[in-house]
Amino acid sequence: MAGFMKPSDTARATGPICDDMKIKSLGNDRLLAPELDYTGYVKGMVRARTISAGEWEWFTVCKHDGGFETILAWAANRYLAAELDYTGADTGMLRARSTSIREWEKFDIQCPSYCTIRSLANNKYVAAELAYTGSGYGMLRARSTSVGAWEKFQ
Question: Which SUPFAM superfamilies does the protein's record reference (predicted)?
């Protein structure tokens, strides 16, 4: 798929409804990708950083019967999680690191004319950190209480 599309809201008793997609930040017009070459606590950090899509830029978004969405990064084969125990400028960092679904892996995705991603664990919108520089540029964080340009995706 060319852009970010929310799976149908129609719930099925047989399991989640999933869709494969690329996700683009409208703040910088870049595709999201997990940083699999990073090490330590930033391994799998998701950033809005690429222009063209390769394997790292593909995700599977699933709408679950419980009323939440999950995002699986293909290249990592891991669910995205909001790192709520991180502090400072890393609070709420999204990382492709989870093999199971718990609270930090649950999101609410709404797509009126653009899409927003809200962490259900801390009730904050995901933003692409476009003021960060270097290897942190475009880092996704669940940290916003309102929606601006950095919290919009397609």
Answer: Actin-crosslinking proteins (SSF50405)
- Tens digits of residue pLDDT in 111-154: 989 999 999 999 999 999 999 999 999 999 999 999 999 999 99
Give whole-number Cα distances, 65 to 11, 16, 37, 70, in Å: 6, 6, 34, 11
| Strongest mean pLDDT among 4-8, 52-56, 140-144 | 140-144
Domain with 104 in it: 17-151
The count of structural domains within the chain is 1
Burial of 38 (0-12, 13-18, 19+ CB in 10 A): middle
- pLDDT of amino acid 15: 86
Coil, helix or strand at residue 55: helix
